[in-house]
Amino acid sequence: NAGVTQTPKFRVLKTGQSMTLLCAQDMNHEYMYWYRQDPGMGLRLIHYSVGEGTTAKGEVPDGYNVSRLKKQNFLLGLESAAPSQTSVYFCASSIRNTGELFFGEGSRLTVL
Amino acid sequence: AQSVTQLGSHVSVSEGALVLLRCNYSSSVPPYLFWYVQYPNQGLQLLLKYTTGATLVKGINGFEAEFKKSETSFHLTKPSAHMSDAAEYFCAVSRGSGSRLTFGEGTQLTVNP
Fold first, then answer.
1. Angle at A95 between CA A39 and CA A99, to 5 degrees
2. How many whole angstroms separate alpha carbon A105 and alpha carbon B112?
3. Distance between CA atoms of residues A106 and B87, nearest Å
């Protein structure tokens, strides 16, 4: 029972490079989320999706794009990475928007 | 708008001692309240939640929290700390079903032998 799987788990980028983080869930959840976690700031919502083919902005969407072409996958893209995007990124999913989220193990991104 | 304040970014207790992690919230409507735990190098997992009904909520691993509307608080407690409780704990609030979560800044719990 995999739950929520994130790839890659670690990545180092140079400023200006692009990359995509992949999140996959096998629980048939409708809602999916991308958060970033920074020391002393808790978790901040980047983008979220309420179903296949839909996306919406969260608290800190600038510099990121997302896509939800399949219900089980939620992709987070960085078109031109900046050092301020150095963070740990977490994907989560939920059956509905009830606050009961299931998280992946995180993807640690460093932008030099 | 809703917000969460966790008092104390670091809390240290001795093994066997009481654990008390403080959370205060602000919300313009009756809130849904949550505590999540994050063990090292892992994602967050739900510890317990309050939506409606009984204000004392029991969660996993012996933790419980009490919703106190008059104090706008949802403090997390455990009578006796174990070494395995060492983790970061996040309080979160939403405005109810259909509303997104707002997380607090987290409290790192250290348990000393």
1. 40
2. 26
3. 16
pLDDT band with cut points at 50, 70 and 90 for residue A47 = very high
Strands in B1-113 per DSSP E: 3-7, 10-14, 19-26, 32-38, 44-50, 56-58, 64-68, 73-78, 87-94, 102-103, 107-112
Helix (H, G, I), strand (E, B) or coil at B61: helix
Which chain A residues are Cβ-neighbours of B104 within 8 angstroms? 42
A-chain CB neighbours of B105 within 8 Å are: 40-42
pLDDT confidence of residue A12 = 97
Is the Cβ pair B46, A100 closer than 8 Å?
Answer: yes
Total count of residues recorded for chain A: 112
**Tokens 């983790």 found at:** B87
B47-99 pLDDT tens trace? 999 988 889 999 999 999 999 999 999 999 999 999 999 999 999 998 766 67
Tell me which residue of A3, A1, A4 sits closest to A107, measured CA to CA.
A4
